[in-house]
Each structure stands twice: as structure tokens, then as C-alpha cells.
Amino acid sequence: MEQSYTANDSISRAIRTRISYRTALEQYRTLSRFARISWVTWIVAIVTIAIWCFSAYQYALATGAHSLSGVLMSILANAINVQNNDTLANVLIADGAKYNPAMLQGQYWRFVTPIFLHANLLHVGLNMLNFVVLGVFIERLVGHLRFLLIYTVTGVVSIIASFVFSPQEVSVGASGAIFGLVGAYSIFVLVHRRAFNRGGIPVLLWLLFIIGLNLSIGLFVQNVDNFAHLGGLLSGFLLGWWFTPLYRTNPNGTLVDVHSLSRCWPLALLTITGTILLAIIALHFGGG
Predict the structure, then answer these.
(1) Is 192 in the active site?
(2) Element (H, E) at 249
(3) Which domain holds residue 114?
(4) What is the CATH number of the domain that holds 209?
(5) Lowest-pLDDT range, 5-9, 121-125, 209-213, 243-247?
(6) Is residue 166 annotated as part of the catalytic site, yes or no?
(7) How many domains does the chain divide into?
């Protein structure tokens, strides 16, 4: 009897997991056509690209370009290689890059602004391509506000990690926040692993491979801030555990997302408060 109960309970959990997974994937289809659009993803991508255009223009002027053709030539010449480029570093610092001396002097907005800054065409192109591909899907999965929360908090935590562990580096880029999205989605898959074939092991191994591959790039390529990537990834794991959709059946038989912000808003406020406290602690005990 005990073995029968265990087997039945396992089957019941698998069924609940499949229902939760399928509901989470299809929930956005119940929204109006306007609400289905991944507005946060597209707005962030457009704003980020616009900010890069402004920084690229400033850099072109700083290198002596004064015509449209000169600006375009400057952008193309700097499209890939940014090593030992003090002029670009100065432009990015002026625009809000992660720069520890300025942050220690009270420019705390630099915990946020680096997420929207990029060094060159290749940098912004690859990051925004990855962001849009991931963002459209994950925003549909978690909803607009939860997506904004996960992206912003993991982005800020990635800058905090860079501030503490790479104090000498001038850092910019959305890759830490993108790693945060990957981390959050990985937890969603882990929680719903029973909805996949073979207990989700092949999918989880594939995600681990992608994460490991991207982190390993920082070991061989200069000017890649792996501490920011790790900070974003680890905070993404945590926020994924707290906020990615998990549907359960109410006593009246309706499905409810127990991780929705309407139910977890105190945890969301605690998350934002904790991120601010983490930045304060970093300012007082690290970054020198």
C-alpha cells in the first residue's frame, strides 16, 4: 500500500507540474492583442540602442569626426576592437559607466546606468539580439512587471558584483541582466522539470552548457566582466525561484499563479529594498 501511495503521489505531482507549465506558456494568449506585446523588451531595446547611438556620436566627435561620413567611419572603425581606448572609456564614464571612484563620491545612479550603455556596435548588437530573443519569450511567460523587476534587479546586482570584485574596471553592458533572465528561466525549467521528457535532464544540461559556454568566453576574451555575469546569473536564480510562474489549483478548482506580483508584492518590495541595501553595503565595505 505504501508503494502504491508513493507512485500515485508521484503521478499526481507530475500532472500538476504539466498543468502549471502548459498554463504558464499559454497564459499570455488570454490577454488582449495589445497586452500580448512584449512592451518592456522592445522599449528597453530601443532606449538602449538610442543611448548607444548618442555615445557613439560623442566618441566620434571626441576623435575629431565632424561630418556624417566621419561619424560613420569612426563607428565602423570601433565596431569590434575597444582595447586600450582611453577616449572611449572617458566618453562612457561621462555617460554613466560603472566607475568606482565616481560611485564612491556619491554618483549612485551608476549602479543602474551601465546596464543601458555599450562600448561599440558589436557589443550592443549581440546584447540586444540576445535580449530581444529572450525577452519577448520570458516577458510573455512572466508578464510585464515581473519581467521588468527581474531584468532591473539582476542588472543592478551585476553592477554591484562588478563594483566589488572588479574595482579597477570601467564596465558597461546589459549582459549581466541578460544572464539574470537566463538564470530565472533556468529555475522555471527546474521547477517544471516533470513536464519535460526524462525529467527535464536534457533541457537542464543544455541550459548549463549555454551558461558555461558564455561564462567561459570571459576567460579568453579581454574586457569581459565575468563577475557582473555571475552576479546577474546568481540573482536571476534567486528571483526565478521567487517570481517565475507556478500555478496551483484553488479549492474552487481554478488555477492561480502563486508567484504573481499581486500575491508576492511584499516579497517584491523586500527584493528591491534588499538590492538597495546590498549596494549600500558594497559602497561601505568594497569597491576601493
Answers:
(1) no
(2) strand 247-249
(3) 2-285
(4) 1.20.1540.10
(5) 5-9
(6) no
(7) 1
